[in-house]
# Entry
Amino acid sequence: QVQLVESGGGLVQAGGSLILSCAASGTIFSFNSMSWYRQAPGKQRELVATITSVGSTTYSDSVKARFTISKDNAKNTAYLQMNSLKPEDTAVYYCNLMKPGGKTTYWGQGTQVTVSS
# Structure
């Protein structure tokens, strides 16, 4: 059974930084793609960043150059370093794991990030 546990959310002032962590269990971590999504109140969940099994990364335009996704296969953990945070980054952030083949995904429970102006 794959489980994902996010941590690191909180309240930060605009311009500040946070780092989110997603610890995975129940799978061979290095084989999977990991993504971070976010969902703000009243909005659809949106893809923020992805890192593939070989370490290639992609970002949404809204976070490019501010956020960095990474992973540590030895620790079965993915990270999202968020810098220069803006109030519009306020959302619940979710970790997503995608198995090879792209048909099976798992979600974490989410962690709240609130950026005050």
